[in-house]
Amino acid sequence: VQLQASGGGLAQAGGSLRLSCTGSGRTDVMAWFRQAPGKEREFVAAIRWSGGNEYYIDSVKGRFTISRDNAKNTGYLQMNSLKPDDTAVYYCAAREGRPILSVFWENASKKDWYDSWGVGTQVTVSS
């Protein structure tokens, strides 16, 4: 599955950006990761095919919202109240297969769980 991400850019602190990620095949679980300069790639958010079950890293809870439009095979990451610490290259990831909820919670934050990765999109937040 090929993933195409878009929507990155420059925002001021407190501003908003929306990232999109469109898949060429099955994307039963979609997720966003990010990597800041000199840091490890970290999990941001994930969502199952059915929606309604969203998983976020603590630092973005209440500010970021992950969603998906299955008809368009596209996932979104709405980022509000952006902070300079959110500056990073953001990557979308996906995997095929419909895990039960417990398996999703256990594995959604693990990079190795995902089959496909998109090319990153830069998000820069100025103070």
Oligomer classification: single chain
Largest sheet: 7 strands, mixed
Order of helices and strands: EEEEEEEEEHEE
Our Rg estimate from Cα atoms comes to 13 Å
Beginning-to-end CA distance, first to last residue = 37 Å
Structural class: mainly beta
Question: What number is the mean pLDDT?
Answer: 96
* Helical segment count: 1
How many β strands by DSSP? 11
Helix content: under 10%
Q: Mind explaining what this structure looks like?
A:
This protein has 127 residues and is mainly β. 6% of the residues lie in helices and 47% in strands. It has 1 helix and 11 strands; from the N terminus they run βββββββββαββ. The chain is globular, with a radius of gyration of 13 Å.
Question: Which descriptors apply to this entry?
Answer:
mainly beta; four-stranded antiparallel β-sheet; seven-stranded mixed β-sheet; 127 residues; globular; 11 strands
Task: Describe, in short, the structure shown.
With 127 residues, the chain is mostly beta strands. Helices cover 6% and strands 47% of the residues.
Provide the fold topology.
Blueprint: E1 3-6, E2 9-12, E3 17-23, E4 29-35, E5 42-48, E6 54-56, E7 64-69, E8 74-79, E9 88-95, H1 101-107, E10 116-117, E11 121-126
Parallel strand pairs: 2-11
Antiparallel strand pairs: 1-3, 3-8, 4-5, 4-9, 5-6, 7-8, 9-10, 9-11
